[in-house]
């Protein structure tokens, strides 16, 4: 199909005009013209959480509860949608950074970071950072969203990677 909609039924809607169709809201969107990085690919974990929240009566408590703190992580490799293949820098001052987001706005909707975020390599090189990821844990946790950096950066000892407010956009279409 070319209209970005999927039938809820397995057969094509052209063969079943009464098929209920829903937008494919959980696919990566094209990065906006805003300067910065679009972290718009939801992980498989996040897709299931969003669908369960929106379409079922599964309570959002315990391990299903909405996280209260989000963290930005960096990856030296391109992850899969299940958040496999992530290679975060190890040591040399690396730690995920707490991140807060603005309320969703715009069309397509997106949330952006509200404060300056910085990562500084100290004591050694990190390598080339190519992806940003949003996690619900400082060290472990679940990856909820990810996206490639518009400008991958080689971080050597003493280098800093900063994201100005509104430079990171998280959205779904």
Could you describe the 3D structure shown?
This protein has 173 residues and is mostly beta strands. The chain has one domain (26-171). Helix content is 7%, strand content 32%. The protein has one helix at 44-55; strands at 5-7, 21-23, 37-38, 41-42, 70-75, 97-99, 110-112, 117-120, 127-135, 143-155, 160-163, 168-171. The strands form 4 sheets. The protein has a 5-stranded antiparallel beta sheet. A hairpin with a 7-residue loop joins β9 and β10. It is globular, with a radius of gyration of 18 Å. Residues 1-35 have low confidence and may be disordered.
State the major sheet: 5 strands, antiparallel
The secondary structure category is mainly beta
**Got a strand count?**
12
- N-to-C series of helices and strands: EEEEHEEEEEEEE
């Amino acid at each position: 199909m070319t209209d970005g909609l999927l039938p809820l039924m397995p057969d094509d809607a052209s063969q079943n005009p009464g098929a209920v169709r829903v937008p494919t809201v959980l696919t990566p969107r094209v990065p906006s013209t805003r300067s910065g990085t679009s972290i718009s690919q939801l992980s498989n974990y996040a897709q299931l959480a969003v669908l369960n929240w929106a379409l079922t009566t599964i309570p959002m408590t315990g391990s299903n509860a909405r996280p209260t703190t989000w963290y930005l992580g960096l990856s030296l490799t391109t992850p899969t949608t299940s958040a496999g293949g992530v290679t975060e820098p190890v040591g040399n001052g690396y730690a995920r950074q707490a991140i807060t987001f603005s309320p969703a706005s715009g069309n397509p909707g997106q949330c952006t970071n509200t404060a300056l975020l910085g990562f500084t390599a100290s004591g050694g090189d990190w390598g080339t950072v190519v992806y940003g990821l949003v996690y619900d844990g400082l060290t472990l946790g679940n990856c909820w969203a990810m996206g490639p950096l518009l400008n991958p950066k080689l971080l050597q000892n003493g280098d800093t990677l900063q994201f100005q407010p509104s430079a990171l956009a998280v959205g779904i279409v």
